[in-house]
Amino acid sequence: MKCALSAHILFDLHAGKGDTSFREVNFYMSKIIAITSGKGGTGKSSICSELGFSLAKQGLRTLIIELDFGLRCLDIMLGVKNEVKYDLGHVLRGECDITKATTKVPIAENLFIVCAPEDPFAKVEAETIKEICTEMRKYYEYIIVDTSAGTNASVFDVVEQSDLILINTTPDPVCVRDARTMSDEFYKRGNKKQRLIINKVNPDLFKADLVTDLDEIIDTVGVQLIGVIPDDDEVVIATSKGRQLPSSSLAFKAFDAISKRIQGEDLPLSFKVLLQ
Q1: What does the pLDDT average to over 99-123?
Q2: Which domains does the chain have, with CATH numbers?
Q3: Which stretches of 93-213 are DSSP H helices?
Q4: What is this structure's pTM?
Q5: Are the CB atoms for 144 and 135 separated by under 8 Å?
């Protein structure tokens, strides 16, 4: 039976620090984080980019692998749309290796990305992604996998190798139900290392009685909470312009806290300020 906890979180995924070169790191310290959602529009890609920024700012070599084929957006969010020469599509067609398809993010030391193919009909097997992650985890402390949204079989197959699955939802009841569906399937497949992110939290939703409180969302999904992200215009501005969030924003503080919980820091969850 699943147990939802909404108090403190201690999840030991600590990794070391280092420079940004392609030198090998301790394979067993490298962690793969899959970020997924039950439906589109929950801000999954924004979470990938901002969590990547947060980890990289702490000196952790971080790679984002984008799997949302045909709906590529992280190149814009990370400010590399004119820098990407090769993407995952080139790798799948055998035109280059995965290291050549890796693009450094200029505005963030220690952050790199492998962009999704622009072809929406490109096909990839879960085993191929597993092989790519196995190869790349020699060079990065964290690998963030941005899955496609939805409950198709390929999503479940891809994330099975992950050390941590971050299920993203908004307070919207439809998103919450879909997140529960995804979590149930992960549990059926034996994937117990799940954590919940509640994104785009707006006090007006609670005032309109769409949701009683955040605990109701946690209990419905049945996954332990790792962070709450406010509905912050700064996120839209930053991801649209390909720049980092200002450190003064509430969203920056939320992503910073999540990144530290992932590393094992025992930080209290406090979201009362978001609901004022």
Answers
A1: 90
A2: 31-269 (3.40.50.300)
A3: 126-136, 153-159, 173-188, 203-207
A4: 0.85
A5: no
